[in-house]
Amino acid sequence: MLILMAVLYLLFLLSVDWIAQAGAAWYRPHLVALAAIVAVALASRERESDEF
Asked: CA 2 → CA 6, 16, 25, 40, 48, distances in Å?
């Protein structure tokens, strides 16, 4: 969870610069956020659960 929060914080800092650039692809921060969500989902799926 701490890693996800750090990635989201860095994404926010980078997205401010990306949004400020004229003519830049506006969807780049969203692609990075999607990649972070997919990475966390894959990492949590592979972890064994003791609940069942």
From this structure: 6, 22, 29, 11, 19
Coil, helix or strand for 50? coil
Residue 34 has pLDDT above 80, yes or no: yes
Q: Where are the domains of the chain?
A: 2-46
Nearby residues of 33 by Cβ (< 8 Å), 6 or more positions away? 8, 11
Tokens found for residue 8:
């989201």
Helix H or strand E segment including 40: helix 28-46
Both tokens assigned to 4: 């996800």
Q: Per the confidence metrics, is the pTM higher than 0.70?
A: no
